[in-house]
Amino acid sequence: LLSGLHRSFSYTGYWLNNPPGENSNSWLGKRALLKANGFGFLILFNGRLDKELKGKDAAALGRSDAAAAVSAAKGEGFGPGAILFLDQEEGGRLFPEQSAYLFAWIEAVRGSQYKPGVYCSGIPATEGSSKITTAGQIASHEGNKGVALWVVNDQCPPAQ
């Protein structure tokens, strides 16, 4: 089955914690099997939604989630220098608590043996008379510090 999938797919997203909408993580412990079948990996950590950050110390949560991501990556056998991508599910303007969480996560991963990355939206959101993207905000904030961005634009045109 996996060899058949590998004919069409060269890599897979690999979750270090519960994927979005899930109550458990069925990925853990499967890295060796996937690697043996030739797959590469987009290493993902499911970040917190804004509603989970409001009224809390978002930066502290970002640091603790980064520590959990680093620990899980080590436990799954991902080597030094691998990029860990924080899945920033919500697009558009980052609220202050989202920024605090995300940038604390990036800094904490940057201080580990891994490199930080963010899987985020590139869909333009209207803000006043201009447009803004989540990816653009992150890139602007990070400048040349070195954060990898995996930018998605999953808008689909209307069916014909």
Summarize the structure.
This protein has 160 residues and is of the alpha/beta class. It is built from 6 helices and 7 strands.
List the SSEs and their pairings:
Layout: H1 2-6, E1 11-15, H2 31-36, E2 40-46, H3 50-53, H4 58-75, E3 83-87, H5 96-110, E4 115-121, E5 125-127, E6 130-132, H6 134-142, E7 148-152
Parallel strand pairs: 1-2, 2-3, 3-4, 4-7
Antiparallel strand pairs: 5-6
Helix pairs in contact: 4-5
Structure notes:
The chain is of the alpha/beta class and 160 residues long. 36% of the residues lie in helices and 22% in strands. It contains six helices and seven strands, in the order H-E-H-E-H-H-E-H-E-E-E-H-E. The strands form two sheets. The protein has a five-stranded parallel β-sheet with strand order 1-2-3-4-7. The protein has a two-stranded antiparallel sheet with strand order 5-6. The chain is globular.
Give a quick set of tags describing it:
alpha/beta, two-stranded antiparallel sheet, 36% helix, 22% strand
Q: Which range best describes the helical content: under 10%, 10-25%, 25-40%, 40-55%, 55-70% or over 70%?
A: 25-40%
Shape: globular
Describe the sheet with the most strands: 5 strands, parallel
Q: How much β-strand is present in the residues?
A: 15-25%
Mean pLDDT: 91
Number of helices: 6
How many angstroms separate the termini? 34 Å
Please trace the helix and strand order, writing H or E for each element. HEHEHHEHEEEHE
* Cα Rg: 16 Å
- Tell me how many strands there are: 7
